[in-house]
Write a structure and sequence with these properties.
By secondary structure, the chain is α/β, with parallel strands linked by helices. It has 13 helices and 20 strands. The protein has a domain at 350-455: 2-Layer Sandwich (GMP Synthetase, Chain A, domain 3), CATH 3.30.300. It has helices at residues 13-34, 36-41, 60-65, 67-70, 78-85, 118-147, 162-173, 175-178, 190-200, 209-220, 240-250, 365-371, 402-422, and strands at 100-104, 112-116, 151-155, 181-185, 204-208, 230-234, 255-258, 267-269, 275-276, 282-287, 302-307, 318-319, 323-326, 339-343, 350-353, 359-362, 377-386, 389-396, 429-432, 448-449. The protein has a nine-stranded mixed β-sheet with strand order 4-3-5-6-7-8-9-14-13, with helices on both faces. Strands 19-18-17-20 form a four-stranded mixed β-sheet, covered by helices on one side. A three-stranded antiparallel β-sheet has the order 10-11-12, with no helix packed on it. Helix 10 packs across helix 11 (240-250) and helix 12 (365-371) runs antiparallel to helix 13 (402-422). Zinc ion is lined by residues 270, 272, 274, 276, 331, 333, 335, 339. Zinc ion (ZN) is lined by residues 270, 272, 274, 276, 331, 333, 335, 339.
């Protein structure tokens, strides 16, 4: 296996294309030989590959259902992984002594388990680091040198989420980061989070977009007093208004990348506001609802991702669900790589109003990250059905019996109540829905559905 992956080794479009074709051919060949799932899927295909479009499309549900056949190292089994991820003490620790594990629900509500080897982890870490250093620029780096590196990761804790396990991985693998990075749980009461951040005084912040927006509000209210030099907002797409508010409050330009657990090779944001795709390690194909290619300049229905580096768990033409638009002409920033815009997952905050009239906005990820990793749950959805009611729709794995479902509802109820309490929202009631999660009209699936606008609480 190719452990010497030279990233960004070519800067011409021709060179990048050549590298992409060679890596794709290599990956497909490897998947055919080493993954029983792909061997079966590609059975009728010719040996030589003329176009990526000859290959069938895959998705999370299909791949997760055939997990043991999907992976190319037979030592990895779903059973072993599940034992591993049910142990929070092992977050960031290597699985089978060499693999990095991350779980995700993504936009589909379906849990995915993703495994990367050392080489893939190193490539994504390097790409990420380069992008952030160039965003900070020389003057930012100098100021950082003067004030010291203290990175606050605002994240969900207690499960193997990609972000958190990345932080633990950093701490475990490098003495430099051990005391310079600290994870702050999004599930702690907001006042406590503010207090701890005031004490830590981070110079760098990485956090779920909606949580960072919430913190900007706290800083504006004079409760939070921090002066970070770099903020990366993650996982959700913010509205332009929120994005600018963060920038104004903290006096910087927030950084955002486009990537996911399935595609960790972050496309980096340029100063012109476009994401440049690292096309030598990843292929993104914008498609319409029938999986036909969408031309540049048109927003796609979804995007198919092919990860050209990770051979442990081949991700080839995998339906990611995001809508993207490819820039039809060359980006004015000078970077020749393909530039895209992303209509990512919207961070639909749930808005509640306290008896004293105060509006409280709760980031959807607070709920998602709690339910996400609970055993037995196949799909979930949180719906705000009235100004003070949340309805929880759950569907369970077939093997999960009624008694287990009831027990788990009690656990979930307690955990969600605790989160609401942390925001002073004890009056919000939680309903266990009898119906399963549903798709919205456009066929897209939303994990969290706020109250429709017309029913929204009028401003006081
Ligand atoms: Zn650009």
């Amino acid at each position: 296996m190719d452990n010497q992956i030279h990233i960004l080794s070519s800067h011409t479009t021709d060179g990048i294309n050549r590298q992409q074709r060679a890596r794709l051919a290599d990956l497909v060949q490897f998947a055919r030989t080493s993954s029983p799932f792909y061997r079966e899927l590609y059975r009728g295909l010719p040996d030589g590959l003329e176009s990526i479009r000859q290959l069938p499309i895959t998705n999370k549900k299909q791949l997760m259902a055939r997990f043991d056949d999907w992976v190319t190292d037979p030592k990895i089994t779903l059973e072993k992984i599940q034992t591993f991820i049910n142990e929070p003490g092992l977050i960031g620790a290597p699985f089978l002594d060499k693999y990095h594990v991350a779980i995700t629900s993504g936009t589909t509500g379906q849990m995915g388990i993703f495994i990367t080897d050392e080489a893939t982890t190193a490539v994504s870490a390097k790409i990420n680091q380069q992008a952030k250093l160039s965003w900070l620029g020389i003057s930012g780096l100098l100021r950082l040198g003067l004030r010291g590196i203290r990175l606050a990761a605002i994240t969900a804790t207690g499960a193997h989420f990609g972000f958190l396990s990345g932080i633990h991985y950093m701490q475990n693998s490098s003495p430099f980061w051990k005391d310079r990075v600290r994870a702050f749980s999004v599930h702690m009461p907001i006042d406590e989070l503010v207090k701890q951040l005031n004490r830590f005084q981070p110079t760098l912040i990485m956090g779920y977009a909606s949580m960072v927006a919430l913190l900007a509000g706290q800083q504006e209210l004079g409760r939070l007093h921090i002066h970070p030099l770099f903020i990366e907002v993650m996982s959700e797409k913010l509205s332009e208004v929120e994005f600018q508010k963060i920038g104004k409050v903290f006096n910087l330009r927030p950084y955002q990348m486009y990537g996911s657990t399935e595609n960790p090779f972050a496309s980096s944001l340029c100063k012109q506001g476009w994401y440049h795709v690292n096309s030598d390690v990843v292929i993104l194909e914008p498609v319409d609802a029938e999986y036909r290619p969408v031309p540049a300049g048109v927003m796609s229905h979804s995007v198919l991702v092919t990860n050209l580096v990770n051979k442990i768990q081949p991700i080839i033409r995998y339906d990611l669900g995001d809508s993207i638009l490819v820039k039809p002409d060359v980006c004015p920033c000078g970077n020749p790589r393909t530039a895209i815009r992303v209509q990512g997952r919207a961070a639909d905050a749930l808005v509640f109003v306290k008896p004293n009239g105060e509006h409280v906005s709760v980031p959807p990820l607070l709920f998602v990250t709690l339910i996400d990793h609970m055993p037995g749950i196949e799909l979930f959805q949180v719906v705000q059905t009235s100004p003070d009611t949340l309805r929880i729709r759950l569907s369970y794995q077939a093997t999960y019996n009624q008694a287990q479902q009831n027990d788990q509802w009690q656990t979930l109820y307690a955990a969600l109540s605790e989160v609401l309490k942390g925001y002073g929202l004890n009056f919000v009631s939680l309903e266990r829905a009898s119906e399963p999660p549903r798709q919205s009209e456009g066929g897209k699936f939303r994990l969290v559905i706020p109250l429709p606008r017309e029913q929204e609480i009028p401003a006081v």
